[in-house]
Amino acid sequence: MIPSFDDIKSTVKRVQPYVHNTPVLTSRIINEKTHADVYFKCENFQRMGAFKMRGAVNAIQQLSKHERANGVITHSSGNFAQALALAASTLDTKAYIVMPSNAPTVKVNAVLDYGAEVIMCNPTLDDREKTCGQIQERTNATFIHPSNDLNVILGQGTAAWEFINEVDDLDTLIAPVGGGGLLAGTAITTHYLLPESETIGSEPFGADDAYLSLKMGKIQPSINPVTIADGLKTQLGDINFPIIRKFVSNIIRVEESEIIAAMRFVWERMKIIIEPSSAVAVAALFRKNKRFIKRRIGIIITGGNVDLDNLPF
Amino acid sequence: MIPSFDDIKSTVKRVQPYVHNTPVLTSRIINEKTHADVYFKCENFQRMGAFKMRGAVNAIQQLSKHERANGVITHSSGNFAQALALAASTLDTKAYIVMPSNAPTVKVNAVLDYGAEVIMCNPTLDDREKTCGQIQERTNATFIHPSNDLNVILGQGTAAWEFINEVDDLDTLIAPVGGGGLLAGTAITTHYLLPESETIGSEPFGADDAYLSLKMGKIQPSINPVTIADGLKTQLGDINFPIIRKFVSNIIRVEESEIIAAMRFVWERMKIIIEPSSAVAVAALFRKNKRFIKRRIGIIITGGNVDLDNLPF
Predict the structure, then answer these.
(1) Which CATH number fits domain B53-143: 3.40.1190.20, 3.40.50.720, 3.30.2130.10, 3.40.50.1100?
(2) What interface predicted TM-score (ipTM) does this complex get?
């Protein structure tokens, strides 16, 4: 099921009051290095530090009054946990977040600070799902998936909407792909606003299930993904994959060393903090530089939530 | 000698074509934490990563054609070395930079990348000055002081000009003070544009010569300053001190632990990279929070040049 242009427009109206219209930055050094005009949509400056706030806000708003009264639930140790917690408190909804017992304390505290109820479970997918099920039985809370949910996908697409409306004539948008919510949302939005432009995904070699899925024409499981870009370890879903298959022209894979180098380059030269998942998109630009020369490139910087005590450099 | 309003205006015209009008950022979290409206003028996004570009550009432009043909010279291991090198290459002037042999390789490389000639010397002030003198004798290059120079002071003041023109009704501007060029330039500009507002300096306890000088009414030597904010170890000069004495209402001193905590807070919450000297101004806001409640505060983020291999956290 492919969303319509009207779906996109009504999502923007719903989401915009609750999120920052994040700034677009440019870097003379990166333009000189790549011989391209590169624009960075800085979702690291978004509320809770990542684009995921957009999808969470949209998903909660699409619930009925009755559903909202019962609250929302997800399991996540990453940005979506914080996003759903903050979106829920912003929209006066109760959030239950199931987190694995090995989640960093700083992330658990952030979710608690946003007012959610945190339920710990063992760090296996089985136990995460089982715990979620138990809480749902007790509370009737609605489960919101971090990426394989049409309303989440549409919400994430609002970043591309703002981007395309601020920067004229982008030839290419590049977004990293993990679960696929951002990439699908970016691709469908770009399809309607800039039908002549292309959306490209970027992915670590160590977690390249989206690349393989696109190549095989059906979803490939993500088996033991290994990458510093921990936000990209999750796998594609059956709701976002058809959108990605239809509207994404290509997925560029990058090495771990390229991710770390791109992350450091952006920190040192642009003076902004980006997380490894964001650096994957920058690394894709650097790796396949030749194909982007003289073009107008938009890169979605997905977030800036890093652990300063565990930097890769 | 106090510059006139016309001096300020003509400096802005001279400098603006060669520098970025850097963005002003705000942070909901910092506003909530301080109960104030806080604006950050992000000179970490300036060319070469710090406000010092402004003063260097202005100083070179004020030279005669003959002087410019002979080039400019300074001794510095910090941001002014890069600033003078980049300003000189931007303005088609030759730059000689005398650097101590213990300067980090990354800084020497940055200066070389900007096209300057780097002359190494022993890491003592004596040898720096002696080496400068020898090069001047040979080349007739004009010495540009990093802070105790009226054209440098006026150039640094252009950051406050942009700031005040972008954000209405600032009650207070806060800038860190090392050599005093930025603080003097900010204070004189604020005096003309916002005569009812105050300019406050901020300084580490471990390098508080400006605080002591203001208190005693005459310049106090900076003896063995110890602070992580290495840009603030230099001492006030006889050209900027009279301006600071006349137009700066107060200097707030902060502890090293406060500097590091403020730096980390800004990195984690605002997702921008600021250097320790910039964190000194943020730490001053946090330390003396009570006096800023409900006020409109402008903080000059001086730069973002940090060594990622030597972070204090």
Answers:
(1) 3.40.50.1100
(2) 0.94
